[in-house]
Design a protein that fits this description.
Elements (H helix, E strand, L loop, with lengths): L2 H17 L1 H11 L4 H13 L2 H4 L4 H15 L4 H15 L8 H19 L9 H16 L4 H18 L23 H20 L1
Helix pairs in contact: 1-2, 1-3, 1-5, 1-10, 2-3, 2-10, 3-5, 5-6, 6-7, 7-8, 8-9, 8-10, 9-10
């Protein structure tokens, strides 16, 4: 991935989260505060406002700028969680002018690590971790098999989609949804859904640049 690819990924996330604002908010209205789509769109609208300044930044600084912007502008849990994820991702690729497949997988590893460190969530608790954990495992497996970057990110996206759908029958034991107890069963987790969308944007960019 080049620096331009990273910028395209960030731009695509901003577009896709705006397009899915109502969908994510609807999912969150079932088991949360009905603001996930609104919050994610607000955060990336603020990121969009920094695109001009980001034009001259390197890969690491761009990712860290996304992170600091989300932390400072997004309410609820998603701002600190995704903000930390992008900050850690930026730290993982510090000093690199372009990213090889192994670097992208390391970036995804750090992304998930940031969320786990901040939110203390484990798989099976009906959170974004349930989409990101299988996605990372799929990416690592694809890397070990010598797959192309386009294939690695596609497999990560597909695994995230499966993980997202697997949250539907889960009982939430973490976050706002956990207050609902049994009533959280039967609903797709909005955080897992936004994670899948973010990885979908990554796969799309890597597909086009292949």
């Amino acid at each position: 991935m080049t620096n331009q690819d990273i910028m395209q990924w960030i731009e695509r996330i901003a577009d896709v989260l705006q397009e899915n604002r109502a969908y994510l908010t609807q999912l969150d209205s079932d088991i949360g505060d009905a603001d996930h789509g609104i919050n994610m769109d607000r955060g990336f609208t603020n990121v969009r406002g920094k695109f001009a300044a980001m034009a001259t930044m390197d890969i690491s600084t761009r990712l860290k700028t996304v992170g600091t912007t989300l932390v400072s502008t997004v309410g609820g849990a998603s701002g600190p969680l995704y903000g930390t994820a992008f900050l850690r991702a930026g730290m993982a690729v510090a000093g690199k002018q372009e990213l090889a497949a192994a670097d992208v997988v390391a970036m995804l590893d750090a992304f998930l690590g940031g969320i786990v460190a901040r939110g203390k969530a484990q798989p099976g608790e009906k959170t974004m971790v349930d989409a990101l954990t299988p996605a990372l495992a799929a990416a690592k497996q694809a890397l070990a098999e010598g797959a192309s970057l386009a294939d690695i990110t596609r497999r990560a996206r597909d695994a995230a989609e499966e993980g997202m759908k697997a949250t539907i029958p889960m009982l939430a034991t973490k976050g706002r949804a956990s207050y609902l107890g049994e009533r959280s069963v039967g609903h797709q987790d909005p955080g897992a859904t936004s994670s899948w969308l973010i990885l979908g944007c990554l796969a799309e960019v890597c597909q086009h640049s292949a």
